[in-house]
Please model this.
Amino acid sequence: MQFDRIIKNGTIVTASDVYRADIGIVDGRITALAGDLNDSDDIVDATGLYVMPGGIDSHVHIAQPSGDGIVMADDFETGTRSAAMGGNTSIISFCMQEKGDSLRESLKVYHAKADGECHIDVAFHLIITDPTPAVLGQELPALVEDGYTSIKVFMTYDGLRLRDDEILDTLESARRTGALVMVHCENEDAIRFLIGQHEANGDLAAKYHATTRPIAAEREATHRALSLAEIVDTPIVIVHVSNREAMEEIERARMRGSKVVGETCPQYLMLTADDLDQTEMEGAKFVCSPPPRDKASQDACWDGIERGVFDLFSSDHCPFRFDDPAGKLNEKGNKSFRWIPNGIPGVATRLPILFSEGVQKGRIDLCRFVAITATNHAKLYGMYPQKGTIAIGSDADLALWDPAKTVTITNDLLAQGADYTPYEGLKVSGWPVHVMVRGKTIVDEGKLTGEKGFGAYVPRNRSSMMASHKPAD
Ligand code: URP
Ligand code: ZN
Ligand code: ZN
Ligand code: ZN
Model:
């Protein structure tokens, strides 16, 4: 049999196995996995490399408006370009409903932003900010059928947050339609109270972003979200968990029988609140929510990764330029931390950081690396087995990793829209040197070779978790 392309002599890694085989590709899909394939004019030599499923980052914000003239640093071209440089072949980005708009209208806007711009494949979660009966009763069921099978709701942020009754309505609709709900858990009223106190005291520096969003505010909201989900018997995903107390809420809910998935992110392994405590507004570079905590919280997040509390490791890429009046250094942000836009870039650094700090330092094995960076995302968000694994029939979305390559991270390397990375100067061991989407090389020798427009929109199935969930009724 003649193949369009063969990946030869690599060590294949999936969420369950590590083995030597060649990969045959026809029409962008894997059609053979065998010991010695030769029938192709296009042979990629993977000697000494791990051949892994390309990363799937299921928590990425791109081109999402934040009001007050603040703009995100990445559009779909730069965001997906940077994702590719970091070994990703798919992202799931957010489509945010503007209050008063229908979900369909919102999707039209985000598809228009993404169409023809992407370097890698893209799907959309729906952020619901206005859960009207029409949205939950009519739109959501139809959209789930159309392949938009996950939503995010916020318990914090003025203008985005939902009340508990609205969250219950949304969860109930999700249960009926089979949508999977992601929840951002922080207690907005507590945060507003603390912000008011700090501003009254004249405590305005970036570091107070962290003190006004304490662990207790995250733990309480996590407990509440889990309780609401339990009340309507609906599975949920608790996103961007930053500390042990919130993590333990997830474990307790699981012990009660709830179906809960936990997600954590590189910032909670690598940064602390001390990073926000810098002069000249440098601390603004690290402002995200929940905020980075302390060393004990970092250890807790590693523990959660190792013990399987966290099944998802995502970037929560939410980039703003630093030296920019439309970014971190906007006029109001200079006056109070309250106005510094929340979010940090990270789509390109997620995988190298976990590979280096996790696999190379012996905290997790290769299979777990693949599971929490690709396979679980595909299964949980309905892209499996098209995406997230190396198997006959799957898309040939592959990242070839050189475990011996040492890289010092600098912003220049990441091809992103932001003018900084929170990880500038970090030395990592292991790098995705060759990345292909549906069999086509988009990064080679660490250089971008793909073109925008090759990345395609991916309609999704229902989550594996929703499909297997039999409501108690
Ligand atoms: O600070 C953050 N995380 N910004 C992105 C939006 C979100 O809450 O995920
Ligand atoms: Zn969030
Ligand atoms: Zn986010
Ligand atoms: Zn190559």
About this structure: The longest strand covers residues 398-408. The domain at 54-368 is CATH 3.20.20.140 (TIM Barrel).
